[in-house]
Amino acid sequence: MTDADSRPPTPTQQRKTQIILDAALGVFSMFGFRGATLDQIASAAGLSKPNLLYYFPSKEAIHIALLSGLMDTWLAPLHALDPDGDPQEEILDYVRRKLQMSRDMPRESRLFANEILQGAPRFEGHLATDLRALVDRKAEVIAGWIEAGKIAPVDPHHLIFSIWALTQHYADFDAQVRMVLNRQDDSHFDEAEAFLETLYIKLLTP
């Protein structure tokens, strides 16, 4: 559906749009933006390329729609960090939520990872505004907890970065983790949660 068509989408158009986005998520998460093609997305969606182009004018438009639609979901765990909660438990809950997202949404994680690895050319605005502002606010919360002696002194920004790295690894490098552990099921996520809880408790305890 083009920008020129200002009519509200019909239920069929909404369904087709969602089918395309779901198919594109799989293709982009596997091949990245540069490696993905409209032909691959159309094939995964079970549509012809001309039919796909009726809903989205370009590969970039599909990619941007995916990233924009997922941004609120991706930032929700950090939004949930409660300044009035128990500091250590709030941070551990954030670790758990991020790890659960890696378990439940590996394709979405790889989509973001691929975009960042390319320098975030289609998402730089969101990173420089929405994400930066949110991280800065939560870093101030963490700094306040440190100043109050409620958790051990750590760099708040790098604490958040470390949580991203240690949780999203299980989605972005899923094949490597499963190969090394010789696992086909998801039991390693439970082990990872226990390990990360121990790690951060030791790091954060004053």
Automatic annotation (TrEMBL):
Which keywords accompany this UniProt record? DNA-binding
Q: Does the keyword DNA-binding apply?
A: yes
Instruction: Mention any Pfam family matching this sequence.
Output: TetR_N
Q: Which PROSITE patterns match?
A: HTH_TETR_2
Q: Name one GO molecular function term.
A: transcription cis-regulatory region binding
Which residue windows are coiled coil? none
Mind listing the GO biological process terms from this record? negative regulation of DNA-templated transcription
Name of the protein this chain belongs to:
TetR family transcriptional regulator
State the organism of origin.
Answer: Brevirhabdus pacifica
